[in-house]
Amino acid sequence: MSTAAATRRKPAPSAAQVAQRSLDDVLRTEFAFELPRGYVDDAGTLHKRGVMRLATARDEILPLRDPRVRENESYLTVLLLSRVVTELGTLSEVNPGVIERLFASDLAFLQDLYRRINQDGHTRAVVTCPHCEHEFEVDVAGDGLGES
Fold first, then answer.
1. From residue 80, how far is each of 10, 52, 63, 97, 133 by CA, in Å?
2. 102: how many CB neighbours lie within 10 A of its CB?
3. Which of 60, 101, 126, 144 can bridge 139 by disulfide, Cβ–Cβ 3.0-4.6 Å?
4. By the 8 A CB rule, do 82 and 96 touch?
């Protein structure tokens, strides 16, 4: 092999680079979150932390058959979120009644999270500091460092 060919060859990836590629190739299907306000159950317990999973085609199709959705298209959001939010605090189940009783800000948060993970594939957003105008990335689900 010529000296020129040897110098053009890329070096082998490090073990850390290979491990990172393996992590990047894994499909993430569940996303932890923290609600801005939280759900208050009948006993007065506040539930803020939860888990949302990726939606399936079935999750989006089945609620369309529900008579409550036929009466009011907005109810689709309630049924859809009740299917994909798999955990919320210590609740034994997340059903449409729980989603109906969320504060409006928490419902909006979950709708945005749903859109991010099912359309964008992640929960990160690029934001700009209002003081120095530096752009950086944050995890809007609130499960990383610096969580709110």
1. 48, 11, 7, 12, 37
2. 21
3. 144
4. yes
Provide the whole-model pTM.
0.68
Residue 80 to residue 77: CA distance in whole angstroms: 5
Q: Are 76 and 69 in contact (CB under 8 A)?
A: yes
Averaged over successive runs of 10 residues, the pLDDT of the chain (148 residues) comes to 55 66 71 96 97 96 95 96 98 97 98 92 68 70 46
Type of residue numbered 124: R
Provide the CA 42 distance to its chain's centre, in angstroms. 26
Give, to the nearest 10 degrees, the angle between helix 75-84 and helix 104-115. Answer: 70
Token digits for 92? Answer: 């034994």
Cα separation values, 122 from 5, 33, 62, 89, 113, Å: 40, 12, 24, 22, 9
